[in-house]
Write a structure and sequence with these properties.
Length: about 350
Amino acid sequence: MNFTDLVSSIRLTHQILQEDTVKAVNRNLTVRNWLLGYYIVTYEQGGEDRAAYGEGLLQKLAERLDKEGFSYRNLKLYRQFYQTYSHLGSVAFPLLQSLAPIGQTLSAQLEVLPVEANQVGVPSQTLVGKLSFSHLVELLPMEDPLKRAFYEVECIKGNWSIRELRRQIDTLYFERMGLSRDLEKLSDYVQAKAVQLTPKDVLQSPYTFEFLGLKARDVLPENELETALLDNLQDFLLELGNGFCLEARQKRILIGDEYFFVDMVMYHRLLRCHVLIELKTDAFRHEYLGQLNSYLGYYRKEVMMDGENPPVGILLVTNQNKILVEYATAGLDNRLFVQQYLIELPSKEKLRQFIQSQL
């Protein structure tokens, strides 16, 4: 073995075992969520005391399972997942048998579930093995089984990332295929330009974080400069006193069926409002403003309580471009601010030494 062989062996071993780990995590996450949906639907249909909970079942479940991290929205999603993909019992059943005593209790019920009867689309084993739960979530809103099957096939064929799948749905790939004269040619064209999935994409999914009991900030590959800036900003605001309280870093919020992360959420006791801070390591762009404005809208509707004031948004950028900011903020909430920040550079002597060493 020479050095090149050593590098190749380490790289190949890492890649193969990482991919195996991702597949195992993905499969178990998908099966777990299917089973949770199955439990909920089974209880709703025949639970002994189901009448006592009625439509408030999911909310009561979320309150009881709060420590485990199960929210009302996620429990509702798992129920929808089971109802849409009920045929995945053929994959869930063998795994459930190993979960004694739960598997022994429910195995008889699971045996009568529909497996692949009249099922349009990808076989269960292939579906669970090839698509992550995040992929399947993107397909849940589709009422047409044929349309859903089309995206299943194309997504597996092209190994699409979740973002790529969402983009193809948004650009009406299924409908364009129906209007195309040469289906193969359009498919080849789309697949050639598609962004492929990587193991990192799956491991960084919010659903995977929940499944593994991790926080987003523990795993997300943050820009080192951005992290250092947020650390200093956090210390600065807390040292100011005057009411600033840190509520969260990389605060995850669910808007519709998509997750987003707010860089920093503060609460100001004197102003009685949340302060949302987004920090960018480049110049101002109007889409940054739209992003922060969406977060403010979410907090106004979903988080703000009676007696509190509307949230304040602060966008921090390296270059303000005041004219563009003026046009971009025209007509927007006057509680949204754009500010430029400066980074202290090393001394000229240190820069000179660095340049000399590089030369």
